[in-house]
Amino acid sequence: MSTSSLRRQVKNIVHNYSEAEIKVREATSNDPWGPSSSLMSEIADLTYNVVAFSEIMSMVWKRLNDHGKNWRHVYKAMTLMEYLIKTGSERVAQQCRENIYAVQTLKDFQYIDRDGKDQGVNVREKAKQLVTLLKDEERLREERIHALKTKEKMAQTSSGSLSLGSHSGGADPEQAWPQSSGEEDLQLQLALAMSKEEAEQEERLRRGDDLRLQMAIEESKREKPKPEESALMELSAVDPWGAPAAATVGSAGPSPPPTVPVPAASGPWGPAPADPWGVASPLSCPTSHPHPVCVVMQFHIVLYL
Question: Which residues form the ENTH domain (predicted)?
């Protein structure tokens, strides 16, 4: 918690400020950032309560009367006032018109900080804008319709609220709907602007999805095995000849056909010698135990020669 925030909390307790006054003090603090739209919306809703309205406006006028180094009090008070005029109770605009001189005097606000920067110019410009808005009733009515519709849309999106009339303590919800062709045009422009904003948001989301998809593809490419490794893995896992992978390791060609053993022919003289043609030679006789037929054949051959 910052020192300024702690100091404000102490003052809130010491002066026994109400909830509405505390919110106004927070929205118009000296912190170097503007009041949040959610906080200003809460304050605008409280202006429909008679007691809270009096407390809010009293604190706003008190902030407007500040000066010097507290120029942010003044500038933020006018920012909050403009928001309340457009979205708060109609009594806010009425009271601001009755005290418009207090705003007009701020067009001459002067303050130069230690760095030589003219911070009073921010207050002066804001005062001119407020005075112009308060003097132009037609423009104020149009600005109010536009702002109320925007606030209603935001409320429906965030909390499902149907209408801002529930905060007004009996205000007619139909006041937020168009009463003339001019109001319809304003609401149409608002709808177009919101539609454009939604389209831009969808485009940003789509670009984010495309970026995530591209990153996933790049990651997949980095994790994918090289083509040479993939080919070797496929060759080691699949044998085109249908044999198991273990049997084809180191083989560069097709597997030879299986050899079926042929039982050797056997006879009374023992197994016959192997013949590649499968036919026993008529002149071959065993040498160890010659057959009688072989002896006769050999004898005739000798006589013939």
Answer: 12-144
Contact 24, 80 (CB under 8 A): yes
Distance CA 283, CA 286 (A): 10
Taking only the tens place, the pLDDT of each residue in 221-248 is 776 555 555 555 555 544 444 444 444 4
| Residue from 13, 12, 94 nearest 53 by CA | 94
Instruction: State the average pLDDT over residues 161-184.
Output: 44
Sign of CA dihedral 237, 239, 242, 245: negative
Q: How far apart are CA 251 and CA 156, in angstroms?
A: 75
Query: What's the whole-number mean pLDDT along residues 247-264?
Result: 47
Task: Name the residue among 76, 96, 69, 94 with its Cα closest to residue 35.
Answer: 76
Query: Among the residues of the chain, which ranges form H helices?
Result: 3-14, 19-27, 37-46, 50-64, 71-87, 90-98, 100-104, 120-135, 137-159, 181-223, 227-237, 245-248, 292-304
* Residue 168 DSSP label: G
Bridge partners of 118? 112
The residue written with tokens 């965030």 in the block is 158
Amino acid at 182: G
CA 110/CA 200 separation, integer angstroms: 41
- The candidate with the shortest Cα–Cα distance to 30, out of 67, 1, 72, 69, is 72
